[in-house]
Amino acid sequence: MSNTTPAKQNFYELYRRSTVGEALTDSLDELLQNQYIDQNVYSKILTQFDKSLSEALSTGIKTKSVIKGKLHTFRFCDSVWTFIVDNAEFKSDSETTRVDRVKIVACDGNVTETPNSK
Amino acid sequence: MSVQVIYRLIIDDVIRKIKDPDMGLNLDDNVIEELQTMWEARLENSGAIPHTIGHGETSVLNPNNNNNNIINPNNNNNSSITNINSVQQYQNLQLPNPNNIPRPNESELTRNGIHPVGVRHPSEITTTAGRPTGFVPTFKEIPNNNNYYNNLTNLNPTSPISSASLRSIMNPIPQNDGVNDEEEEINVNSDKQDIDKFLLKSIKTEQNFIVQMDGNDDEDDEDFEENKDQNQDDDLLNSDLDDDDDDEDPDPVIEHYVLCQYEKVTRIKAKRKCVFKDGVMHLNGKDSLFNKANGEFIWI
What we know:
The structure holds two protein chains of two kinds.
Chain A: H1 19-33, H2 39-60, E1 64-77, E2 80-91, E3 96-108
Antiparallel strand pairs in A: 1-2, 2-3
Helix pairs in contact in A: 1-2
Chain B: H1 3-19, H2 29-46, H3 83-92, H4 106-111, H5 145-153, H6 163-170, H7 192-205, H8 221-234, E1 256-268, E2 271-283, E3 286-299
Antiparallel strand pairs in B: 1-2, 2-3
Helix pairs in contact in B: 1-2
């Protein structure tokens, strides 16, 4: 996951792997294949998506959750934590969800400055 | 706010920013409308959101598909060859469709001596693969079948018994495996005692009547295990030549996932405590969002 470097904030491309992100990516792929858009437009739209989603998550949601489980695998590389948790239990305000195995990918949320792009 | 509302806000914000001239994309409104329709349709079809977030306006590119904007994104793309259009074109070309080719009647084929590849009626299978061939061992003296059973029940002391017939007495089951048995130059008188002596002699000398041509020689029990191990070593199927597959893929495809940012990750012995924020969760096929999350994982 790379950091985009607009003027002030970092917006992770992490969320492109979500349902809404993949729906947008697939749609853009189709338009790109049919040459309705070019690669530059493709990248800019996705960058805008990263920004819009990050802002929506930070301002539009107040939900808190608790995650518990057995840690099967953990990895920390390039400031990205990856956890694979077995028998995970997710408790939120309204409901509890249990899954046999879940993968948690977490980027560094403490970065405030604009790093140099790789 | 619910997931549906958040996604609605995200889509609207992205589309609004795309339309902004300051962004410098210079896209046609038609393309932007089409992108929004496709995006919403795919999101709807994914099933991650329980309620529709449908786009009220019809697609400009496909005014005739008013009712299909949300159902299938491919219907709204007029220019590209959609799955449905391509299928219709394919059918109109009247190319040989494998589905239309009548399956030939097997009886007709067999009458003509033609058998479909890989399709054989069980009754038509004439191969003897796996079955013992009709190998008839050749004997110097072929035993008279009429006297075969007579020899078993009534040993005629007067008639000379050849080695083949003697063997047939001791081994009434005809041998159909391997090469001919070794023929021993045994000239046994028809005396029963002589036969007993011969049997005792053969047992003492551990003489094999049948030359074993299939595989390794059978050994005694003590030697059998050694040979068994040796055979296993020689068996390529169980050799070390087989590649050992990795027990676990380092990045397995997992159905459930959480995408978020971490604020703090600490460890006390085998327990890790994490503080996450701004997360998107996909659990049991449904999306959910959180602003803050605490994780407690025990590593065993």
